[in-house]
Amino acid sequence: MYYSAYHSVDVINGEGTRCCLFVSGCEHACKGCYNQSTWRVDAGHVFSQALEDQIIADLTDSRIYRRGLSLSGGDPLHPANLEAVLQLVTRVNTECPDKDIWLWTGYQQADLTPQQQAVVALVDVLIDGKFEQDKADPALLWRGSSNQQIYRFKR
Predict the structure, then answer these.
(1) Taking the complete model, does pTM exceed 0.90, yes or no?
(2) Taking the CA of residue 36 as centre, how many other CA atoms within 13 Å lie in the half-sphere pointing to its CB?
(3) Which of 5, 29, 77, 86 has the fewest other C-beta atoms within 10 Å?
(4) 122 with 101: CB under 8 angstroms?
(5) How far apart are CA 36 and CA 120, in angstroms?
(6) Nearest Cα residue to 126 out of 75, 55, 59, 66
């Protein structure tokens, strides 16, 4: 898996102070996407064990409280990302059980493959659906267009 950016302190992508990973790879190519540089699966940097370890360290750092991890992109549920994302969310749930996980995807929840569903089963908040420029609304919370849905799960 590749990623375009990692922010150890983020207050934009989800509730509270969070860690945020922007993965690479997106097949949706939404018109008006603000993050087109993440569409190629090999854009940015290789996601490494060292970065995964850093995310866990940041989530457990007592000097700056983080509520959880946000996964955006690109698309965390792109087939090229599923193995690494599943490993990361599994590890966060195991080693940081008090942290929540938010995930943005262009896929719709009803259409997810079994492998994508395995990832979603480990997240707390899912924002699904492609960005649709004609439904864009900057006043929306946590999403860019009104067709996108926010799902909160109880784990």
Answers:
(1) yes
(2) 6
(3) 29
(4) yes
(5) 24
(6) 75
